[in-house]
Amino acid sequence: MQLKTLFTFIIVGLSLTAGYAQTSTCTFTIRGRVVDSDTQLPLSGVTLKISPGTQQLRSDGHGYFRFSQLCGDVYYTITATSVGFDSLVTEVPVEKDETLTLKLHHGHILLHDVNVVGHQQTVSTANPVRTVAREQVAQVQGKTLADIFSTLPGVSMLQTGTTIAKPVINGMHSNRIVILNNGIRQEGQQWGSEHAPEIDPFVAKDFKLVKGAEGVRYGADAIGGVIITAPAPLPIDPHLSGELNTIYQTNGRGGVLSGMLQSGVKAIPGFAWRVQGTAKRSGNVRTADYYVGNTGLAEYNASGALRYTHTQSVFEAYYSRFYTSLGIFTGAHVGTVDDIQARVEAGRPFETYPFTYDIGAPRQRVIHDLGKLKWHRDDVRGGSSDIQYGIQRNHRQEYDIRRGGRDALPMLDMVLTTQTLDANYQTPLYANWRTQVGTNLTLQVNNNVPGTLNTPLIPNYDSFTGGLFAIQRLIRERHEWELGIRYDFKNFDAAGFDKYQHLYGGRRDFHNVSGSFGGVWHPAAEWQLRSNIGLAWRAPNANELYSNGLHHGAALYEIGDAELSSEHGYKWVVSPSYARGAVTVDFDLYAQYIQDYIYAQPSPGEFLQTIRGTFPVFRYKQTHATFLGADFSFQYTLLDRVNYTLNASIIRARDITNDVYLPYIPSDRFDHRLRWQLPLNSKVTSNTYVTFAHQWVLKQNRYEPGTDYAPPPPAYHIFSAYAGSQLALGNHPLEVGMSINNLFNELYKEYMNRFRYYSHGLGREISIRLSYSF
After folding, report:
1. Which residue intervals define the domain TonB-dependent receptor-like beta-barrel in the entry (predicted)?
2. What single string gives the DSSP state of each residue in 731-757?
3. Helix runs in 643-752, H state only
4. Most exposed: 363, 514, 595, 765, by fewest CB within 10 Å?
5. Could you give all domains of the chain from N- to C-terminal order, each with its CATH number?
């Protein structure tokens, strides 16, 4: 209670400061668009810096940018830089809100492409695109990819205990979301609720979220949206540069060390390289009251990239390896039906666990290798061509407690190999029209490694997917329109033996047409309106079709349905936004209908007892479903250095066939942030801030009684605090950060946590971060 009282005094003190301060004049905005001086096409991903001040951003997928909270009677300097273009420096006297058009001229390297700057994967779409701010990334650095994106409205997490999380976009997760990892579609065993994306967030510098059905541009499975992670462009400068990040986390006594080196090569003009690595280690985590047994983590990652630029062509090569070994909460593997019912009723472990770094069974071990080769060419008229090949190998092993000292033998051992070939061509701009056509080919082979002495959860299978698409864009100064169409064909051939040694599986063929139509309109400098309606589809996964066994990592017994058909999703998103002076408002309103929606339904009262324990039974079913919701973001500058932010997400999802609520849909949540920029700028320190945050998660009342093993947990409040500063060490910056999550050490449960039946959420955690760039 003393900490809560202190927090209240801080909030009141900042509010009083705002009330007695002199009226702020730092409420002006500079907004505009960056275009190619030759083609007049908008340029996305251009880095823009403004001084005085520390604001830095990148132009969006349509070339737009906005600097806010600027002071009057000040001359500001805007610097725009992008690979292949000469830097542009513009001075702007601010006496009112200003609107600019920045025209970049080509440098000695000819790059006319507007959708790929530095030949990264960027986005130009009528759907809303949200970027995770650099400061918010820093505040959760060292955590998972899901933690980073959950800072955006409309994104939550599907958790398995306190250590495994995957992102949820407007109620969609797993195979309904496409994740692009450095331009390659991430392909692992993502069908599992506890199979987190095998991506090291330290590799990426840009984290973007596309809301809406993106089936045309990205193919099957993009029903719920697209997550894009991209590294910074490789340098042209031949001087060695890099960064070093180190983090300590008190909860789990975890440590993270990540480093990167990069450079151009003076002896080979146009050649550049980068190497990167991350090591992470933590032990048993703690709730507010107790340690959660066997929740340690070990992770080791590495990556390397090469780029060679020659006249109008760019060649890229990339490789990464992700390795993780993590424990699964021991209390989720229970002996008898009576025991599991007693644990669910208690809602917490019966055992007392000590702190340890040891990781025992049950546990996961995953190795994910990714390789990429890419060729890009710009023609002198402004068109561009891309051909990209990717190969991934995902080796997943899941271990359980076994008799006879065989714990070292995995219960589940699968290798998934995926090869992709993508090609597309974009025409030059003709009379404000531009066309993009392309194809995507994917070949997957999944094999269960023999020798586990256990019946595999899913069968061996081969899968081939081929798609053709075309997108037509009309680009005007104040508005853009986009129409797209796509055709996909998928062949799925599976074969396996069940626990009775009966052969099952077979060949299934799926095909579908996807489409989208949308636009972006700027009726005035302060307003922007995006609207898009899209059709996307998804074929059922191997586990949804054929699983009939114990999923060890999730501590569930899953039963599939071989007769499931494809999902077809129709999603309409409308996104108005307003920004003027001290106020910024963003809305994302969406309505989605999914025909033949597939979901895992808990089977109350049904438990399956094996020699390894007793487990809840989940059955895959299919229905028609609707998703209606709104994501809201509001920012207001109280005074020169104090900003308030509110993010809210509301979703309503129903099984309209049976007129009931769908299970495992995120409950309504509200996030408040109050940020104070401290006036401590000097030659040594800059950008010093303190942020206080509050998250309010409501109880999920849209729930059908008797359809789960335990009712949804009550609402909860989580308070957090963040602080950071940039120090000058010679000519190089050192960023120092500190965060306190769950400030008051609340004991709570999250409805979207699959282990909420047995344990609570993460207790107080203090993180200290150092980031040095050179």
Report:
1. 314-743
2. TEEEEEEEEEESTT------TTBTTTT
3. none
4. 595
5. 28-104 (2.60.40.1120), 129-773 (2.40.170.20)
pLDDT, tens digit, 9 for 90 and up, residues 45-84: 788 888 877 677 878 767 788 888 788 778 788 888 886 6
Number of CB atoms found within 10 A of residue 508's CB: 19
DSSP string covering 583-614, please?
Answer: EEEEEEEEEEEEEEEEEEEEEEEEEEEETTEE
Residue 5 CB burial class (10 angstroms; 0-12, 13-18, ≥19): exposed
Q: Are 556 and 709 in contact (CB under 8 A)?
A: no
Name which of 569, 587, 570 is nearest 578 in CA terms.
587
- Give which of 686, 690, 664, 659 is closest to 752, Cα–Cα: 664
Specify whether the backbone of 101 is left (phi greater than 0), alpha (psi in -120 to 50) or beta.
beta
Alpha-carbon span 362 to 553, nearest angstrom? 7
The three-state secondary structure class of 132 is coil
Contact between residue 512 and residue 105 where contact means Cβ atoms under 8 Å apart: no
pTM: 0.85
Backbone angles phi, psi at 745, to 5 degrees: 55, 50
Q: What is the rounded (10 degree) CA torsion for 248, 58, 261, 256? A: 10
- Cα–Cα distance, 413 to 712 (Å, whole number): 33
Q: Angle at Cα 439 formed by Cα 83 and Cα 222, nearest 5°?
A: 85
Question: pLDDT by residue (tens digit) across 511-553?
Answer: 999 999 999 998 888 899 999 999 999 999 888 998 877 666 5
- CA pair distance 235, 45, nearest whole angstrom: 15
- Amino acid letter, 47: T
Whether the CA torsion 265, 111, 199, 207 is positive or negative: it is: positive
Return the amino acid letter for 463. S
DSSP state of 140: T
The answer to whether residues 218 and 226 touch, using CB atoms and an 8 Å cutoff, is: yes
**pLDDT tens digits for 159-188?**
888 788 999 999 998 889 999 999 999 999
| Separation between Cα atoms, residue 297 and residue 679, nearest integer Å | 40
DSSP-assigned letters across all residues of 98-115: EEEEEEEPB-SS----SS
| 251/239 Cα distance (integer angstroms) | 39
Separation CA 446–CA 494 (nearest Å): 9
Q: Are 179 and 418 in contact (CB under 8 A)?
A: no
Handedness of CA 118, 124, 127, 130 (dihedral sign): positive
Q: Of 83, 41, 47, which Cα lies nearest the Cα of 62? A: 41
The residues facing 601 across adjacent strands are 619
For residues 285 and 292, the answer to whether their CB atoms sit within 8 Å is yes
Structure confidence at residue 21 as a pLDDT band (50, 70, 90): very low
β-strand 613-639 against 556-559: which pairing, if any?
A: parallel
State the first-to-last Cα distance of the chain, in angstroms, to the nearest integer. 44
Q: What is the DSSP letter of 172?
A: B
Which residues make Cβ contacts (< 8 Å) with residue 106, sequence separation at least 6? 36, 37, 38, 84, 85, 86, 112
